[in-house]
Amino acid sequence: MLKLPPRYDEPLPAAFFPASTPLPFSRADFGANFYWGASAAAYQTEGAWQHQGKGPSIWDDFTRRKGVIRRNEHGRVATDFYNRYEEDLDLARGLGLTDFRFSVAWPRVLPEGIGAVNRRGLDYYDRLVDACLERDLRPMLTLYHWDLPSALQARGGWTNRNIVGWFSEYAQIMARRLGDRVPHWAVINEPMVFVGAGHLLGVHAPGRRHLGAFLSAAHHATLAQAEGGRALRALLPDTAQIGTTFSCSYLTPFRPGNSYDQAATRRADALLNRFFVEPTLGLGYPVAELPALRWLLDRYQKSGDEQRMKFNFDFWGVQNYTREMVRFSPWLPLQWASLVPAKQRGVPYTDMGWEVFPESLYHMLKQFGAYPNAPQLIVTESGSAFPDERQGKRVADPARRAFLQAAIGQVLRAKREGVDVGGYFSWSLTDNFEWAEGYGPRFGLIHIDYETQQRTVKDSGRWYKSFLKGETLEATEANPAQQAVNR
Ligand code: FCB
């Protein structure tokens, strides 16, 4: 764990504030129409897991297994957002955000995944959207942020090709009900993470470890991503901006001059950064770099699928937290590459074990922006977890604050170099349930006391607020990190 400076005014390691940060900058540099938001997800915040007709999800089931989640924690109460959303949206508005991204729990709306709609569940999202609009917060709605209805998992979940139709039905229900008020739709959150962590590594729901399950789930997610986009566009042809979100990390070879590591980096890039992006553009899967994908093509891809995987999204959500260093590995035949953890590299890292490397966001915006026909990019997640301590009404979180400042600076850097990037959403509005890591890592701009559910805006949140009010982040003197922290 990164040892935090013991005193508030001590400098952070220089990694927090790369020299490439285009200081000074202010909100005005991003243009008047730039979206400034924060993101959240249903299972991580809502709680109310059996409330008002909600059906069970694979995360309700997975968290019941012993030993898979830190301290066996779960999202049954979480941040109680289901009951406290008005308070949280008040706080979001208080920060001066223009946008708020949340996800819909599919089993809250369709307890069996398909078929009968749970009116009370749908009504809840209706109220949530209205509550955003009343506060001048533009809602961005994510249809799938990993909480698949258990009833669909019982039929194979993402490994069953029928999921494409099930998902499209669900998308249509949401579009019909909320399409008149929700301007931004994100079809799927980070397919590589729920497919990979859930079906190959077994560390996320549904907890499978099987290459065939991974490849079939991946292919069906690729199809659902495009099909969901088409379902929304058919119903909301003029009103909605339709996007989807991708996890990504800037990758470099662990041993820069080593040709094995260089080749491994290209393969890891194909798997982690290109796999779900390129089919949307009609480029298919990156089979040249990952020959093992031929198995996917032979077994799961049907004729016409290349066409079905295409969809011209209005935006891509870029979700970036760190960079990774890659080395050749003889043990992993899908990509023959493994990631060298930051801890072993002697660099500063966050509570997730992720290297503090804000420039990764710049590199990924450049990489995605370089595709011919790339749509607008919106940073739909960016953030950092550090241990926080509340002292009375204050949470001093200099590390998160510096990271936020540096990440926003890197967005500006990409924008100035011509990348069409339209918004920045911080992960997350509040601390919340961090999947396999439980309530350990805290990502919020707002601190949650899980005993009392008390909310406290952290210093990072306060800085975001003053930045959104127009304050300039000044150029620095000798130590930019220290300067950023002292302000
Ligand atoms: C992303 C997820 C999000 C959150 C952050 C830290 O992969 O989309 O739900 O857990 O990581």
What small ligands are held by the chains? beta-D-fucopyranose
Shape: globular
Query: What class do helices, strands and sheet pairing give?
Result: alpha/beta
Mean pLDDT over all positions: 95
Order of helices and strands: EHHHEHHEHHEHHEHHHEEHHEEEHEEEHH
Distance between the amino and carboxyl termini = 25 Å
Instruction: Provide the β-strand percentage band.
Output: 15-25%
- List unreliable stretches of 5+ residues: none
Full CATH superfamily name: Glycosidases
Protein described:
- With 487 residues, this protein is of the alpha/beta class.
- It has one domain: TIM Barrel (Alpha-Beta Barrel).
- Helix content is 36%, strand content 16%.
- It is built from 17 helices and 13 strands.
- The strands form three sheets. The chain has an eight-stranded parallel barrel with strand order 1-2-3-4-5-6-8-11, surrounded by six helices. Strands 9-10 form a two-stranded antiparallel ribbon. It has a two-stranded antiparallel ribbon with strand order 12-13.
- The protein is globular and about 55 Å long.
- The two termini are 25 Å apart.
- The mean pLDDT is 95.
- It binds beta-D-fucopyranose.
- The site of beta-D-fucopyranose has 12 residues, from loops.
